[in-house]
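Researcher: Here's the sequence for the chain we discussed earlier.
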Amino acid sequence: MAEGKTQPSIVSNPGSCSDPQPSPEMKPSSYSNEQQLCPYAAAGECRFGDACVYLHGEVCEICRLRVLHPFDPEQRKAHEKICMLTFEHEMEKAFAFQASQDKVCSICMEVILEKASASERRFGILSNCNHTYCLSCIRQWRCAKQFENPIIKSCPECRVISEFVIPSVYWVEDQNKKNELIEAFKQGMGKKACKYFEQGKGTCPFGSKCLYRHAYPDGRLAEPEKPRKQLSSQGTVRFFNSVRLWDFIENRESRHVPNNEDVDMTELGDLFMHLSGVESSEP
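Model: Thanks. This is the structure I predict for it:
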């Protein structure tokens, strides 16, 4: 009878020590593709240590944080690229600040970055020459009413005409960098609707020279206006739509802004920030 008893079936134990162990080259099964890196370890320290349910990344040699995924080469490559670009950007800012420290305004003769008011510590960089001015001084010069347009558009020292004054918290001397700032500004402003044009219901004093977008409600862009001419008493021809960047800024600043429309002042602040090297979430 005993020999006729059915023997109990052997059930494999998945947790037994006889189970095959993953090789060192294999990705452990507990580390799924969807597993996220621990934000605490990435920020510097995780108090859970080895008991943490998240994956602790490897140390990036550039930022020295544990942010590199052990099993995702694409993530590692993407992070290292962004990290290097950030490092280079910070180095550029450091060099720019160092080059700006001792710059003296050629009008007020003050060290620009040592001015008492923080709002005064800005450079007004002329697009076509490298003479140094603080923003307020060169702005006052270019807004003078007693001089003809070619005079106020020229540098007070060398008389070279510059179409643009670039607001900047750093000194910029390289011509290519100046051009990049001007183009970045134009592109950023060109994405915003002009509040003077009002989708065709209003009139913009800057016409085709306006830096904002002139578009109708259906998205069509307005045809560029032809510049109007006026003959002065001295016999010179003046173009009404021949404006300077500072004309644009001055008009924005001098407008009466109702208390419930702070957006215009925000736009003016963005305008300065966009050209000054200071990051802004949006242009």
